[in-house]
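In this section we walk through a basic example: taking a raw amino acid sequence and producing a predicted 3D structure, encoded as discrete structure tokens. The instruction is simple. Fold the sequence below.
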Amino acid sequence: MTDNRPNILVIVSHDIGKHLGCYGVPQAGTPHLDRLASEGVRFDRFYSTSPQCSPARASLFTGRFPHSHGVIGICSTKFDFDLHKDEQHLSSLLHKCGYDTALAGFQHETIRPHDLPFKKLPNDDSSCDCVADTTVDYLHTRRDDDKPFYLQVGWSQAHRPFEKFDTPPYTEKGVFLPPWIEDEPSAREDFAAFQGSMHRLDGAMGRIIGALEQTGLAENTILVFIGDHGIPFARGKHSLYEAGCEISALFRWPAGGWSGGRTHSEFLSGADLLPTLLDVIGESVGDNVQGRSFRALLDGKDYRTAEAVFTEQNFNAYADVGRAVRTARYKLIANFTPGRGFYDSSQLWRPLSTVSFIADQPRTQHPPLEFYDLENDPLEKSNLADDAAYGDKVAQLASMLYQWMEETEDPLLQGLPEPPIYRKTLGLLANAQNKP
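The resulting token sequence is shown next.
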């Protein structure tokens, strides 16, 4: 008996934010992704749950916020943050209901990949070209298979260093600088290199889209291309500002009517992906899933948009703990640790690009609250948290944020989160004391 449920192909790219032609950045050189947007459905207000790779990706595949699923920092043996052992990953849920599940490239949401039911496909390296080769080969093996598949794809682009894998800069259509970045030669050099990485991953996407068409799989395959968080520049990645949390989100499923180049501006969260995909195949979600399905939007039906979207941050290279709520016009950021006003996400000893309206970046510091009127101040320049004229609005959003923390049982309500290194170091000290 033929299983007519759709195949699901989810591709997650590092650090891309909304730096695509279809989001108003033609200089990025992304014709294949722009085509995908023109043929599918594009979301303009899709937010990561966190401006970091592992926490954000773990939310995509569990439907839960970082403080709930446990990944409050980077999943690696260096940092040791990981999913709680009872968390349900999308691959596990789909495997249980009859999908073949495979991974091309890498995942970045757990340090226990053996716990996931992935068939690990062969890969020489993590470049988008190599991962695209693997993906294309896999799709050709599925062309005559009646059993639906779930394929998760992860590659290195557009993570720094941009020149990795000998990727040249891309300047064919000029260089785009976001309006908050100082226009100077070093910044243009940095963004040209970023565009090179974007252009290269777009080429990989073109090959994958082509393989779907060549194999006849395109019609009944849900294709999702999504970013994990914002771009890796000052006030982007690793910050709760808009540029840190806004992401690209493109969907296409011709058989399901997810087509035609539709765009939507409703608030959506990374935690909404899992319940949406399960909704499509008729599977219920667990009571602990915090996201909600937006299938109705994809189907072109009525959908009640969320009043607000919530984001959070816990650990970068150090504790940088914050929570944020954003409504149609306003945004409140609550900072729970001191430190620099924003982390240097360039990962360079000397950043090549700087924020144009901040004179002394290293000496900026988190205030307890930040409040922005995004209608009049889209770049989040002026903190109005102490402005009496906005007192009622600040209180309203503060109440919304606190209520969300209570509803999701945020451990932060009981104290600052504890990094794994804390127990490890304490154990080393205790062991040393017991030695003769």
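Looking at the output, two observations stand out. Residues 30 and 131 are 18 Å apart (CA to CA). The longest strand covers residues 319-326. In the next section we compare this with other chains.
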